[in-house]
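Structure catalogue
Derive tokens from sequence
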Amino acid sequence: MSRTDMHPPAPPAADRGGAVSGAGLPVGRGGPGRAAGRLLDELGLRSAVGADALAAGEKTFSPVHLGTQDVPVGALLDALHRDPDLLPPRTGHLGNWEDIALGRSGPMDFNTAICGGGHGYPLIYGFTRTEAATEGGDEGYRPGSLIEQGKRDTLDLYTWDGRAFVRRDRDRPLFCPLTQAGVDGGLVPLVDLHWRRMGTIPGYRFRQWATVLVEHGPLVTDMLTLLIEQADATAKQGTRLAELISQAVRLDGDVARCDLAADGPGYVLDGYRYPSARALAEAAMVLVRALTDPAAFFEQLPGLPPVLPVMSLQLTNVLFGLLDTHHPDRPAGAPESSFITHVHWGARAMAGCPPRRGGYLTRRSTVRSLRAITTPLVRRFEQAAPVAFVLLPAQVFMLCPPSTSPADADLLADLFRTVRAARPDAAHATALGWLGEHGERLSPYLRGRFRPGTGVPSDGVPREPAVPVEPEGFRELTFRQASALVGAFEEVLG
């Protein structure tokens, strides 16, 4: 039976206009009929995303989740590769990417398929926490450890206690930008340690989300200042402060939801008063710069306020679109004529796998918040425009087994034929029945992808490098069908 091997890990933009890293990103760029905006017409998504309302200014933010649409997987991938400018970000986390790039990372192999296959590039989000004995740490990428060839070495972690950096136990998660690791008798910023290792991975030219913000630092600071000034702690229609600053981090690396309230012209964050909205916004950018220049941040850390504001995910998701992260290599051009079409690979939390799990981004409450953040920016800043957010569910690539498991590819090709022969709305039920009959024949590796709470394997089991394989029929599945299959796999194998 024929199968299609995906490309081995290669530079995500090697044949698509240059390197991902190091290129300045234009703001709000596109052009009538060009790039991402054309994608809506090619895939028949204009109505689903509410393009007319966006163009008329009636809406400022509108998402469409491909996991709810009958768009063939292959049609989307082909459309992406036809456009030399368009390359959607895959927002992975800071941490252990070595085994991901080698196709032996279990549930994290969807990163390999997307970034190694040239369907997207790794845009790294660094506002995460180290894994720990208590909940809340990043168990997917495990930034508090070094993992290679399935072997995990836990790091000695240090944070500031007001006088010096002291070693911390692993009872609680630590905010990565404020954490240092003990290496060869010295301290190295945890961000730098992982970034250096990630930079040695052949073909994976990572880009930091924070770098995009820093490159547009004055604009982002102005935007955040405006949003803070206009926020109302009790607003029902506008933006609430907690939707902009969702957490606060203390200098010892402890991060948690915060108490933030206006106090005259200033703002009190967990007991510390910032004198103005701009001062609060600038403090938020200090934390962003901790990711791009960790050494400078740690030098100034003793003189910083005792508590710093952390930008919310809602604001981050708006900035993904407004800062044009889906065009990482294109030089500046004319602004889009009416709205920005942002294309984005979201994983388990952001996109999920509808209908069983839809992810957080398209929830009604989240969309309300994203729209409330975008609206004043569109009204005040000429660089901003309404955003059509096209959410691509990365988890569909969990259905692509590694090249080291050819029997899995044959079995899944049989499943795909069965699903395609059934009614379009019967994918989930069909998969449940197929798994009941054939699921035990799948390899333990593939079955293990769908267990909850799993990340890069660190069980010490040696695994051969591999590339993801598209079983026959994978590209003919619609995203709605593929998402339903992943949901069925999670239900049965999780």
